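ok trying again, last paste got cut off:
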Amino acid sequence: HLGRKFFDIATAPDLAADALYRCRALSIWLTGLTEHLFGSDIIVFRLQSLLLHAANVGLIMFLGRFQPFRYRLTVPAAILWGFNERHHEAVIWYAALPEQLVFTFVLAGLLFWLSWGETGKTSAYCLSILSFLLALLSKEAAVVLCALLFIPVLFDFSRLRRAVIDSLHFVTISALFFFLNLDARDNHLHWNDGPFRLGWHFIPVMWHSSLRLLTVWGLAALAFLLATRNALNTRHLALALLWIPATLAPYSFVAYQPRVPSRHVYIASLGVALLLALAFDQLISRKRLLNGLFLSYILFNTSYVWFFKYDQFLQRGLVTEKLLEDTRQISERYGVRPVQVSCFPLAPEIAQLAIQERLQIPAEFVSVELNGSPSCGPVTVDAVLD
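nice, full thing came through this time. structure:
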């Protein structure tokens, strides 16, 4: 719906004036372009999401070209991250496309920044800035790049002064971005509908989210690394552990639950993948054990999505599917005419768009009664005959 609304270049001023959706402009334009070129077949959108996820795996691998990373760390980290089920929602749910795009451009910005540090080429610095701007057009969480710019300092403290000076453009852009957002808070959905709020609750949210993100695999890897710390580069361990809170911070102001949703850990879960890659590297000489652990990891993560989350997705979709089936029966009986939907437990526009897209009934023919009563029963749909 948003892709159709804002795909026309003439609507750019309207999108720029929308404080919420201008921070998701790239996902809106990409969705509009995809439908324009290939239609609205869901397979196309699923394939696009999977290909973008695969591209992000490639970006992680490419980090190994630069110091302080190395391919021996980034290649296994990329594969482990790619199969991690914790952030599955960012890939499976197409509406979470901004999470994938912000990851793409944050990683691209970091790669160009590392290239700038090694080569000193102005073009690399400019491309890093450009990637940052594109990340900000993907989602507000792009500001995490300002923290990631200091990764080289972990391995060489003498680079701190240069990192502070060179990062000033990024910090200035972030501050301007925040104040523009703050200035528009009266018209910004998330400032007024309650899902996020500023406050100290972000500390327990970050703590619970970090523990949930680590899972038994991350905790076991951390325990193993601490037990074998004599053979470990502790700065790589610090990088993996600091990556998680640094990239979770913007999301940890969530106010409607005690931890961030799975789609919001898409960037942060790379810290866990780095942790696992470090542990696997310590086992490189024990091939059978390493291969067994790797296969177990893949099996665990894929099985969790297929046998646990898949049923949840079906259950969440049942109410909309039942609405569509009831509406289809009414249309077969009375023809295309206005319908009244009652007790729909989700946002009214979901019912309207679902009926419009799946049954080709105009949205203005669909009236949805707000589900404000706790005694409201199952969703019902009735034809308006007069």
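cool. The beta strands are 339-342, 366-368, 380-383. DSSP finds 18 helices and three strands in the chain.
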